[in-house]
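Design a sequence for this backbone.
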């Protein structure tokens, strides 16, 4: 089945021609070697034939070999040796083929001569031509035909017995023999052309198959390369943080496990640093996530500058990073951590147009502080959160006694730190609007916290009361400066607006999940025990406990602090006012508890002076 011509490209044709040439060259070399062996055999056969077929020469009663023997020996050698030499020295060349053709047909002439011109020996000519057709080169057949025709013509004129076996012959006789040879040539040449066409068609198919295979192989290689790249990308994604290009959480776990195994085997130390960027949420919220991402990348790059080649820096998650320090004890780990902290603190980050960033670091060492990967990471994390609690932008080792002291608080430190930061931010917002309110709320928070504990509330409830007190006036951010800073009494409309601040404050904290439990206390801190307060006119114990406590602390602080429209009252006057308002404005039980708090404080002061 041949390939359609329309499907054969120029490259395929060129390749087919090359294959065809290579095939012909290989074929010609094989046939050259075949003729080299054939001519050697024919030469030996010619010598043997002289003994069997040629007459002997008699001299009296003695005889000797006919001169034909020596002629066959010498002439056969001349005819055979040069073609054999060419076949061995220059195989595959056109010159060699034509030399072999001349030699082969000359050997046929010699054999005809040695046989005395017997007709059956003429078939050797046809056999020689048939062998020459193996070359599939019609020019070689023409050469052999010319040699045969010339031989018959010359010897037919000079020595007809050597070629025809008769003493004399007609001059046209050579034409008869030449005609038979040409007759054979026609069919041999046709056969050669058909053979060449088949070979070329096979070469075209091979070229097409090679082209298809090459194309397929190229596609397979491209697909394999793509799959390899995809696998490499997947492997990289599985172990590399896509933002910072550092080892991710998963990769760090594997790296730490291997280092701990190595440290255990050779009894060598290894330290771990746990880092967290300070106030990163504020940077993200204030400047945008793009700036935050850029800061994370630059943070990792700056840290990497201060590490050794054997150290591993990776992103643990969010703004948290981990550094593994092989062959590093606790003392050296603290030195490295402090150097990195100072480097970060002094670096001006390009993110956001140039910002300063600090970080808190915790350090732990295997096997001094931990015996497993999870213990080591947890220990460094504890130390880092201790650094956070102690003011940030510092380094703490887990072996530091202060870390153990803070452990109970650290259990909920992540949420506590976030909540406390939000509370401070909101309180600061009120303070910026009104200096008095800022100082006032801090004093109220201290009084309310003492009062809650004096009433026997647990730590959680006391903390919630403290938060309500710290934020009870947050709603004043929605009140205009003209009202907040007015030195005289408020008119009716101004007072109506001022009464909205508990509602505004409750609404503000409702948007902070960790502060939503403070909403009832903030909204109700101006309610009255007799139900004549605002904004919901709640009465008695329907008023949230935190609101009732804050109301007493708020009233006392307000009376004993200078206000824009009046001077501060004395402690005794404020106490008397609380007593008079117990049961109407304030919860009597809370007023009683408040008085006991001051009585105990007074007795402690007196004992202290007496001592």
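Sequence:
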């Amino acid at each position: 089945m041949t390939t359609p011509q329309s499907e054969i490209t120029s490259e395929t044709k060129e390749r087919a021609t090359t294959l065809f040439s290579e095939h012909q060259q290989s074929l010609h070399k094989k046939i050259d070697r075949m003729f080299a062996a054939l001519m050697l055999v024919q030469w030996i056969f010619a010598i043997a034939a002289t003994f069997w077929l040629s007459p002997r020469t008699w001299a009296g009663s003695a005889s000797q070999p006919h001169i034909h023997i020596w002629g066959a020996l010498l002439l056969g050698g001349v005819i055979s040796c040069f073609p054999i030499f060419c076949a061995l020295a220059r195989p595959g060349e056109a010159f060699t083929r034509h030399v072999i053709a001349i030699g082969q047909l000359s050997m046929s002439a010699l054999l005809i001569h040695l046989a005395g011109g017997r007709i059956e020996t003429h078939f050797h000519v046809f056999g020689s031509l048939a062998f020459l057709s193996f070359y599939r080169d019609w020019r070689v057949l023409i050469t052999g035909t010319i040699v045969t025709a010339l031989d018959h013509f010359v010897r037919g004129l000079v020595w007809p017995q050597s070629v025809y076996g008769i003493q004399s012959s007609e001059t046209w006789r050579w034409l008869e023999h030449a005609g038979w040879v040409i007759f054979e040539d026609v069919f041999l040449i046709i056969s050669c052309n058909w053979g060449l066409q088949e070979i070329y068609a096979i070469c075209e198919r091979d070229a097409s198959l090679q082209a298809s295979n090459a194309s397929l192989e190229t596609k397979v290689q491209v697909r394999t390369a793509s799959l390899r790249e995809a696998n490499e990308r997947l492997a990289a994604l599985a172990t590399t943080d896509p933002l910072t290009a550092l080892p991710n959480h998963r990769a760090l776990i594997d790296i730490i496990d291997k280092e701990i195994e190595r440290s255990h085997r050779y009894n060598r130390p290894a330290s771990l640093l746990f880092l967290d960027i300070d106030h990163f949420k504020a940077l993200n919220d204030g400047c945008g996530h793009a700036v935050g991402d850029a800061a994370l990348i630059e943070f990792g790059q700056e840290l990497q500058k201060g590490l050794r080649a054997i150290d591993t820096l990776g992103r643990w998650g969010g703004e948290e990073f981990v550094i593994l320090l092989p062959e590093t004890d606790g003392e050296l780990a603290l030195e490295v951590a402090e150097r990195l902290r100072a480097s970060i603190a002094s670096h001006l980050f390009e993110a956001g147009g140039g910002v300063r960033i600090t970080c808190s670091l915790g350090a732990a060492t295997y096997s001094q502080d931990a015996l497993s990967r999870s213990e080591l990471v947890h220990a460094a994390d504890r130390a880092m959160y201790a650094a956070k609690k102690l003011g940030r932008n510092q380094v703490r080792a887990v072996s530091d006694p202060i870390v153990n002291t803070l452990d109970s608080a650290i259990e909920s430190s992540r949420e506590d730190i976030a909540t406390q930061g939000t509370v401070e931010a909101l309180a600061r917002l009120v303070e910026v609007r009104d200096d008095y309110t800022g100082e006032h709320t801090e004093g109220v928070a201290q009084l309310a916290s003492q009062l809650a504990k004096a009433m026997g509330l647990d730590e959680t409830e006391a903390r919630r009361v403290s938060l309500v007190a710290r934020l009870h006036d947050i709603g004043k951010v929605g009140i205009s400066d003209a009202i907040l800073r007015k030195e005289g009494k408020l008119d009716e409309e101004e007072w109506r607006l001022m009464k909205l601040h508990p509602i505004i404050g409750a609404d503000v904290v409702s948007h902070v999940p960790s502060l939503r439990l403070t909403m009832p206390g903030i909204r109700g801190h101006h309610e009255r025990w007799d139900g004549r307060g605002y904004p919901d006119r709640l009465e008695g114990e329907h008023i949230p406990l935190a609101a009732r406590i804050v109301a007493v602390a708020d009233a006392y602080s307000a009376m004993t602090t200078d206000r824009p429209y009046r001077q501060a009252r004395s402690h005794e006057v404020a106490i008397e006012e609380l007593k008079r308002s117990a049961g109407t404005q304030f919860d009597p039980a809370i007023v009683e508890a408040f008085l006991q708090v001051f009585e105990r404080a007074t007795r402690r002061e007196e004992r202290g002076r007496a001592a």
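The two ends are 122 Å apart (CA to CA).
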